[in-house]
UniProtKB/TrEMBL annotation:
Signal peptide: none
Lineage top rank: taxon: Bacteria
Organism: Ureibacillus acetophenoni
Keyword hit for Membrane: no
Entry-linked Pfam families: FAD_binding_2
Database matches in InterPro entries: FAD-dep_OxRdtase_2_FAD-bd (IPR003953), FAD/NAD-bd_sf (IPR036188), KsdD_DH (IPR014614), Succ_DH/fumarate_Rdtase_cat_sf (IPR027477)
Higher taxonomy: Bacteria, Bacillati, Bacillota, Bacilli, Bacillales
Residue ranges annotated for the FAD-dependent oxidoreductase 2 FAD-binding domain, each copy included: 4-532
Protein name: FAD-dependent oxidoreductase 2 FAD-binding domain-containing protein
Keyword Flavoprotein: yes
Length: 548
């Protein structure tokens, strides 16, 4: 059977492209190696944050945003420096994406039934100059329903179309080759895998029970990045960030292995910006894992003190939630692959959120009753569970016992109690006045000028060693793998390009496998909310082009 379009990957980029093609009644085949339970891919596990500009939610909170300000932030963050070559199309995609985020994106999402949590989050705050890295204003719009709330309208449309025969959806079909004829991509071939009842996120079997080959006028690769392929992550690790960590926790399931990148490259596709990646510095080992080596990221407020493995406090801009890659570089240049937060129970209660739909059941389940429980004393239930069960937490009423516990946890004596105490005392003395020279205290007070942070995100400045704010808590932070910022280079239609900058006939890409557009829409760094949004936008762009 021949199709108009074959889409490889049923993540949110592939689903978005499929929905555009369903609308114009194109003959579409959607294939994915995972069980049907995995539809939606990584988007399902996400916190559901989306980068949007000048929205009603922002305006209600007194946030003055604009496309010009967002573009200033994007350029200062991306640091595009390969504009004549690898960054050429990523830059074009970035301009188009910022236009989309300031324009029709909001109403387009609303037309799908997607709603937003009323408080806009402030991710990647920067901590540098106005033209440097980071969001000048809060732009992180959390979808009501988190990741599953984003996936639902697209997955439902695809599944309904499959049921009525408008699209063929074949899960447990692993693509191993692109079929070529006369220099064009004309289809896909691979192995049919044995049915598997694995729960979403759990590793599925690779038992082969048959072969397949399907043909189409166009093939869209929407297969994701390399975050679970630690060998490939380390191979591509940029020297500017220091040596790759010896130990990392895994922010994505095992199937996020980059196979289709290599398969596409064998067939003439060009991969660019391999050395650009986005890994988090605040990873916890999940005490209740879903996939192998499962890591969860803390989404921190700005108040925890951050120390390296030898007990040296990080300086600006390496504060919690300010500059992910700058802090990653600072950590790895110490020669160790972990760092520490020291905080109080008051900070934990208000400032610790955990990334992932399953770690935010109140928002994921759209329960206003459960949301209101967040204002009660004590941390949210998922955070409390990590505090009580997580191997990376130390809790004590005494700083001396806390430091001893930190050393015991990692099995060394790198942390000196008096050195830690002097730094904490110095920080606490800065709380006595409403003015200070401590850049982190300044940042905390500035954050609380934003009503959203003051209400639910940033604890009032207080002394860590005052017993009424305790107990004291230390958290070992691991490097957590997550996103691939480079990928298949594509033009604005999503056509995959070869090493000469020419389209590979018949081959398209969307989502993380294409660096979220162009082979690297983010440049070196992300403003957050732009991964999920980049998948939606690139999938939509490809789908619209192939709808003609």
């Amino acid at each position: 059977m021949k199709y108009d379009v074959i889409i490889v990957g049923s993540g949110i980029a592939g689903l978005t492209a499929a929905c555009e093609l369903i609308d114009v009644k194109k003959k579409v085949l959607l294939v994915d190696q995972e069980p049907a339970s995995s539809i939606g891919g990584q988007a399902f596990w996400s916190f559901g944050g989306l980068f949007l500009i000048d929205t009603p939610e922002q305006r209600r909170l007194g946030i003055k945003d604009s496309k010009e300000l967002a573009w200033q932030d994007w350029l200062g963050t991306a640091g595009f420096d390969r504009l004549e070559d690898e960054d050429y199309w990523g830059f074009q995609w970035a301009k188009a994406y910022v236009d989309f985020a300031a324009g029709e994106k909001y109403n387009w999402l609303k037309s799908k039934g997607i709603k937003f949590f009323p408080v806009v989050g402030w991710a990647e705050r920067g901590g540098s100059l106005a033209g440097g890295h980071g969001n000048s204003v809060p732009r992180f719009h959390i979808v009501w329903g988190t990741g599953p709330g984003v996936v639902e309208p697209f997955a439902e449309k695809v599944l309904e179309a499959a049921k009525s025969g408008l699209i063929d959806y074949k899960h447990r079909h692993r693509v191993d080759e692109l079929v070529t004829e006369g220099g064009s991509i004309v289809g896909v071939s691979g192995k049919v895998l044995e049915e598997c009842s694995s729960e979403r996120g759990k590793e599925s079997n690779r038992n082969e029970i048959g072969d397949f080959e399907y043909r189409a006028d166009a093939v869209v690769i929407a297969s994701g990045g390399i975050g679970a392929n630690l060998e490939l992550v380390k191979k591509n690790w940029p020297s500017r960030l220091g040596n790759p960590p010896e130990f990392m926790v895994q922010g994505v399931p095992s199937y996020v292995d980059g196979r289709l990148l290599e398969i596409s490259e064998r067939n003439g596709a060009r991969i660019v910006n391999r050395d650009r990646m986005w890994h988090y510095t605040e990873g916890l080992r999940n005490w209740n894992p879903i996939w192998n080596n499962h890591g969860i990221r803390i989404l921190p407020g700005p108040s925890s003190m951050w120390f390296d493995a030898e007990g040296n406090r990080f300086g600006a801009p390496n504060f919690p939630g300010f500059d992910t890659l700058s802090t990653l570089e600072a950590i790895l240049k110490t020669g160790y692959d972990y760092s520490w937060f020291i905080l109080t129970e008051k900070i934990l209660e208000k400032e610790f959120a955990l990334s992932g739909s399953e770690q935010n059941p109140d928002i994921t389940n759209k329960s206003i009753k459960d949301i209101l429980k967040r204002v009660l004393p004590g941390p949210p239930a998922p955070v409390k569970a990590f505090k009580e069960n997580g191997v990376d937490f130390v809790v004590s009423n005494s700083l001396k016992e806390l430091v001893d516990g930190m050393n015991n946890l990692v099995g060394n004596e790198l942390l000196d109690f008096m050195k830690i105490k002097e730094q904490v005392l110095a920080r606490d003395r800065e709380i006595d006045n409403k003015f200070t020279k401590d850049a982190q205290i300044m940042a905390i007070r500035s954050a609380r000028n934003y009503v959203g942070d003051k209400l639910i995100r940033v604890a009032p400045p207080h002394k860590l060693l005052d017993p009424k704010n305790g107990p004291l808590i230390a958290v070992r932070l691991n490097i957590l793998t997550r996103k691939t910022l480079g990928g298949l280079q594509t033009n604005l239609n999503g056509q995959v390009l070869n090493s000469y900058g020419e389209p590979v006939n018949g081959l398209f890409a969307a989502g993380e496998v294409s660096g979220f557009g162009g082979g690297g829409v983010h440049g070196y760094r992300s403003l957050e909310g732009t991964f999920l949004g980049g998948c939606l936008f690139s999938g939509r762009q490809v789908g619209k082009y192939l709808s003609n």
